[in-house]
Amino acid sequence: MHVIVATDGSRASLVGARQFKWIADSREITDVTVLAVVSPYSAVPFANELGDREPGDLTELSFSREAQRAVDLVAAEFDGWGPTIHREVRSGSPAQEIVRAAEDLDADLVSMAAGGRGLTRTILLGSTASRVQHSAPCPVLVCRPTPKSERVTS
Amino acid sequence: MAADVVERVPEHSELKRSITGRQLYFYVVGDVLGSGIYVLVGLVAAAVGGAFWMAFLAGVAIAAITGLAYAELVTKYPQAAGASLYINKAFRSPLLTFFITICMLSSQIAAIGSLASGFVRYFSSLIGLSEDSIWGATIIALVFLAVITAINLIGISESVVVNVVMTFIEVSGLIIVMVIGVIALVEGVGQPGVLLEFSAEGSPVIAVLAGVSLAFFAMTGFENAANVAEETIDPQRAFPRALIGGMVTAGVVYVLVAISAALAVPMSALAGNTLLEVIRADLFFIPARIMLVVFALIAVIAISNTTLVTVVAQARVLYGMARQDVVPSVFAKLHPTRRSPYVALLFGAVIVAALLIVGALIRSSQAGLPEDDQLDIVDRLATITVVFLLFIYALVIVACLKLRGKDESDRTYRANTPLLFLGIVGNLAVLVYTLIDDPGALYWVAGLLAIGFVLYLAEKFFGHKKDRPAGVGVGDPEAVEPPPSTDKEL
């Protein structure tokens, strides 16, 4: 079984990855691909909020490097878990690229987190997650931080 | 540098870039075309006279030479930071880099204001509002600004397909103008002689110069292409072609549109007005009544598209500065679900709104003055944008020359050196002329720079004081301390 774990560099996506690990049975899974998507036309193509910020000067901000670091940090969660870990950074519209990756890799499951908590979530529902579950060629696990999952995964 | 990134990538991992050369070409054409011609054609015509196509030609030529320098630099450093990155690589002066970044931010903010005011001119024709209503126009501009900001807050990033569709819409409007120009010529409405007429007395060179700075605004936007350099497939090959190709395409369209407009309508009608005057001449197959609505819609879409791209670029500059602790880190805050830099977006919108309101206040206090002495907010904000950009462009060309021999590979694109020198002279000549011609713009320039300075001070005094040893310059690569804990950023 090949699983795609998507990250947008947010804390929620890291918690989501832990939640997936907690739910899933590693014996059934042969491969995990940790995927991040850089969206070049948006104001912030990718923002990594995980781990320490990389020191650098004003001009060296590289969004694909940010994405790579987020992927590395989420992939580190699966160290020693069993399945072979792959890392991938794509570029384009996040929902579309996650679906394409699932098609290209012939994935059996996509695991991703749905936004943060609070009032805005109800108004501006995490559209990437809903678009992916609408058109993915495989089951989609939408992880959502709950008090219980946070206790277990932290 | 791409090579470094690739080396660092561990096994089992890949980096898929997505933007092809053709998409980049459409991005450049779409970004450049929307900005100026729809908004500024009447102002350029008023400044020069029937020969105003020459001003566009000169503006296009200077901008295209600057584009050559950008193309060379992007192939060496395919990263998102654009001008700030090149200036930093060439001069290694944190202060200069900071200053250039603030100039870039200011130019974007002024450009958004100019575009929003230009939007009003077409939109009010759609809804039948009189252009004389200063506050009515300002309110429409502010609502437009709010809508554009909201679109960016929700984070609907333009898809590649939308981008190409928008570009086609923008071009279609200009093709209509060109067809009208051909009809005007065939039917003998306009005399070709008008194309060599200058309105101002004195030397034709000065007359053209007077129009160049405004015509130049029409070419701006191409530097935004550097924003997507990181995501371009094979940037060494694709970038110079797409950038120069896009600029030349836009330039040819501009010159043809300017010639068509001059042939189709008398200068007195065009001066100070929009391209709608060309449509109003009713030379097209379809009645002007219908075409006026169609064309206004096309113009509204074209201006909105360019404004969206400019707002995105502005928010990104501010976000990047905040991420590197040059301005308060609050500007790097992202909306938890939409992943948009909402503080940077709202701040930019507030400054643009302030510019528009100040403009309206000045304008309403000038009611007694003759029309020529009244403030034209589109003109003024476009001039400010151009002042900042001419300075940045000249410095980028200098940086390009200074970085010759460094970080080069056989795949690096190399711009023609004499042309680059000509570009420096061209940019500076227009800059000096613009400032002599319109010294009032300097107050606005100073005002925008002051905002940047205030942000810098805010970071210095209220930012992460303890993280930085005293006496070390901000932005100095060696001086950046380990970042504060991530919790603070959330």
Features:
heterodimer; A: 154 residues; alpha/beta; five-stranded parallel sheet; 6 helices; 5 strands; B: 490 residues; 18 helices; 69% helix
Write the topology of this structure.
The complex is a heterodimer of chains A (154) and B (490).
Chain A: E1 2-7, H1 11-23, E2 31-38, H2 63-76, E3 84-91, H3 94-104, E4 109-113, H4 119-123, H5 127-135, E5 140-143, H6 147-153
Parallel strand pairs in A: 1-2, 1-4, 2-3, 4-5
Helix pairs in contact in A: 1-6, 3-5
Chain B: H1 2-8, E1 13-15, H2 21-35, H3 37-48, H4 52-76, H5 83-91, H6 94-127, H7 134-154, H8 160-186, H9 204-219, H10 235-264, H11 267-270, H12 276-280, H13 288-323, H14 342-365, H15 377-402, H16 417-437, H17 441-462, H18 486-489
Question: Would you kindly provide a written description of the structure presented here, covering whatever features stand out?
Answer:
- The complex is a heterodimer of chains A (154) and B (490).
- With 154 residues, chain A is α/β, with parallel strands linked by helices.
- Chain A has six helices and five strands, in the order E-H-E-H-E-H-E-H-H-E-H.
- Chain A has helices at residues 11-23, 63-76, 94-104, 119-123, 127-135, 147-153; strands spanning 2-7, 31-38, 84-91, 109-113, 140-143.
- Chain A has a five-stranded parallel β-sheet with strand order 3-2-1-4-5, with helices on both faces.
- In chain A, helix 2 links the parallel strand 2 and strand 3 (84-91).
- The radius of gyration of chain A is 15 Å and the shape is globular.
- Chain A starts with a strand and ends with a helix.
- With 490 residues, chain B is mostly helical.
- Chain B is 69% helix and 1% strand.
- Chain B is built from 18 helices and one strand.
- Chain B has helices at residues 2-8, 21-35, 37-48, 52-76, 83-91, 94-127, 134-154, 160-186, 204-219, 235-264, 267-270, 276-280, 288-323, 342-365, 377-402, 417-437, 441-462, 486-489, and one strand at residues 13-15.
- In chain B, helix 15 packs antiparallel against helix 16.
- Chains A and B meet through helix 2 and strand 3 of A and strand 1, helix 5, helix 6 and helix 13 of B.
- Strand 3 of chain A pairs parallel with strand 1 (13-15) of chain B.
